[in-house]
Amino acid sequence: MKPTLLPVTLAGVPLRNPIIAAAGTCGYVTELADVLAPAALGAIVTKSITREPRVGNPPWRIIDARHGMLNAVGLANVGLDGFVADKLPAAAGVDTVIIGSIAGNSIDDYVAVAAAFDAADTLPLVELNVSCPNTSDGLQFGEHPAGLRALLSAVRPALGRTKMIVKLSPNVGDIVAMARAAIDGGADAITLINTVSALAIDVDTRQPRLSRGAGGLSGPAIHPIAVRMVWQVYDAIARDAGVPIIGLGGVVRWQDAAELVLAGATAVGMGTALFVDPRLPLRVARGLEAWVKKQGCRTLDELTGEVAM
Ligand SMILES: Cc1cc2nc3c(=O)[nH]c(=O)nc-3n(C[C@H](O)[C@H](O)[C@H](O)COP(=O)(O)O)c2cc1C
After folding, report:
1. What is the CATH number of domain 8-302?
2. Which of 42, 93, 204, 206: disulfide with 15, CB 3.0–4.6 Å?
3. Tens digit of pLDDT for each residue in 13-35?
4. Where are the domains positioned within the chain?
5. What is residue 1's predicted lDDT score, i.e. its pLDDT?
6. What are the two backbone dihedrals, phi and then psi, of residue 80, each rounded to the nearest 5 degrees?
7. For ligand 1, atom 7, which residue shows the shortest CA distance?
């Protein structure tokens, strides 16, 4: 039996510990296993998979930023068929829970990937990355409650036993309205947050530093934004609805993870930190465990949402 560091249950799925490796930061899962034993993580999210293969944006598509990084990878991935045939069997053999991330440019795209993931039967959870433009109207699914509702009403029936996590974009005016749309649409859990829209300029060439122009900011710079959004959503709707939140954004130390838990998170994602040191999740999990004991608690969920506000 593998040691358990602070087990949690997410949407009915038991995780060995609350730390989840975030989408897009550990490839198709097995890449991370080269540098960190998967059993040290509660779960690993695959990079987002689309119906068709995508080459993504040209370089530069990942750059450093102060207190974080900026990326516009453009959802580069092998596509659904390649993933199911070549990547999923190896990922499913890894000793932790695997969460399949889904992206698309139309509702049909999402439904096709969701149905295939459900049929594969090796992914107990999927995570919908809704920060993608819908080619029919150019708006991101995660930008407007109506767009999100339409997406979820089509995807939900395509998922049988597989639980549905909806990952929300922070680039909206009203995050609670988006969370409400996700919960109304049948989300079993919510991930907060994806990257924050940002732009970096090379002052010598006067050009954007990323080939695509703007990109998504991640890492410690966005952590307080994530904490604020987790708290808002937890307080306004998720607590009463009983829908767990995966808090994500800028976690590099156990204290960052503890803040997200106090704000309302049941589990905690780590992304950019893996580029700094892929073993950081282990340290964060151990730190959280010691913190829970020091707080006089036995389980992490006793501290979920327990900020004194
Ligand atoms: C290089 C890179 C690639 C990413 N790719 C994806 C992706 O494919 N799907 C997705 O939902 N999020 C993706 N993200 C967003 C992360 O999963 C996470 O939401 C974000 O980076 C904030 O967490 P962090 O500050 O811990 O990195 C990516 C982030 C980075 C840095």
Report:
1. 3.20.20.70
2. 42
3. 999 999 999 999 999 999 998 89
4. 8-302
5. 42
6. -55, -50
7. 24
